[in-house]
What we know:
- With about 550 residues, the chain is mostly helical.
- Helix content is about 65%, strand content about 0%.
- The strands form two sheets. It has a two-stranded antiparallel sheet with strand order 1-2. It has a two-stranded antiparallel sheet with strand order 3-4.
- Strand 1 and strand 2 (about 285) form a beta hairpin.
Amino acid sequence: xxxxxxxxxxxxxxxxxxxxxxxxxxxxxxxxxxxxxxxxxxxxxxxxxxxxxxxxxxxxxxxxxxxxxxxxxxxxxxxxxxxxxxxxxxxxxxxxxxxxxxxxxxxxxxxxxxxxxxxxxxxxxxxxxxxxxxxxxxxxxxxxxxxxxxxxxxxxxxxxxxxxxxxxxxxxxxxxxxxxxxxxxxxxxxxxxxxxxxxxxxxxxxxxxxxxxxxxxxxxxxxxxxxxxxxxxxxxxxxxxxxxxxxxxxxxxxxxxxxxxxxxxxxxxxxxxxxxxxxxxxxxxxxxxxxxxxxxxxxxxxxxxxxxxxxxxxxxxxxxxxxxxxxxxxxxxxxxxxxxxxxxxxxxxxxxxxxxxxxxxxxxxxxxxxxxxxxxxxxxxxxxxxxxxxxxxxxxxxxxxxxxxxxxxxxxxxxxxxxxxxxxxxxxxxxxxxxxxxxxxxxxxxxxxxxxxxxxxxxxxxxxxxxxxxxxxxxxxxxxxxxxxxxxxxxxxxxxxxxxxxxxxxxxxxxxxxxxxxxxxxxxxxxxxxxxxxxxxxxxxxxxxxxxxxxxxxxxx
Length: 557
């Protein structure tokens, strides 16, 4: 377990260095795919060992502070502590699952500076995984910020016409907020050690913050605001969301997939791992009810605002980008409901949103590769020419709007139920969130109806793109679909989408496995998070709420 956890981060980081030194683009992309698949294999082996272990300990530590051999590091309280619980384990699996698919999807669209592109993608994989395994706050922050660099270059070099502006805005927004997060971490680490020592162990700083003798309620509120400054921008919450639609629109397809699928989850994961136990909760009690309501208001505003703005978009990619603003509002709302329903639903929502929205961006990218437009007004009736693409597009759209039987339904239901039954939110927040689901169904189905069905209408496709120049302007007058040289999905593209389709169906039908496994870390985050690492939880069976009916009793490991 310990060696696997170390390899999980080192393999992609070292693989990025090797990939940058390889001659030729084809070798670099094959190497990147191999490294990402190898990382996925390590993640699968780690998950198997974690979920089948007889131990009930939720965190596996690979290094202890005593093992740090350099005094210059240990004297400032830094130690390379790494470990996982069920929440971080599922997010690791999501990251390791999406990245090879994103890399494989790039084979047909990335034609320039391939070596650099795939090296940055591989480094981004290692940085994201580092966030989820870090058990030292400084290590967490280093990986959290390291993710900005690869994505900055991916957007800025291989993005659309406004790529430099989008990359700069993305970097400045997220980096500026993270400065306040670093200040909060340093403040806690300087005070959390024992006998005058400094400690940035996440467990130590949580224990310190939750002790009323050490920190007043006012101090904890200010620390929570510092942490949330970085995490809220990364989510992003309204009104610090404006960087996201532009970044999504200008990013290459794989960049949008990883941005929506994983990078946004770094913000919600940070709220779960640090902001909740440090600044908001103590022994199951809220220490700052006003801050909870403030976050609740921002969440429902993001849900409604994101849905309404998405409704009026004419760019498919920008529409899905604004839908992410709305969906991530559900994730934060579930977290601050501070009950089992809401928090379990929130963690499940992180996974489901990564799958559904990442898949939608892939399909949109495949359409763009053929027609070089994402304008809804220029695309119609694509099911006539690309029925396989239409199948996947409709499936992932239904997944995104939470159709019962697909993965989005259970997570949306639980987050709203969590808001309704929360001691700190209530019916008003639940009603507004439910309205967001209705609006989401309207704009997503409206977009799908216009693009997939109706009379065939596509822009002119030039011969150098598909080997055949069209003699029309894209309108079908009822005599059948014209042959403009555009073909349905290739075998490679189908290979990319099939695993995602299986995942959204599997999690829609069988979500209980995820929900049971995350119950214990969810309860620890809300009640007594500070004992999560050093102690082994009781082996007494816990009532694990999976779906709100017929709650089974199971031992959570």
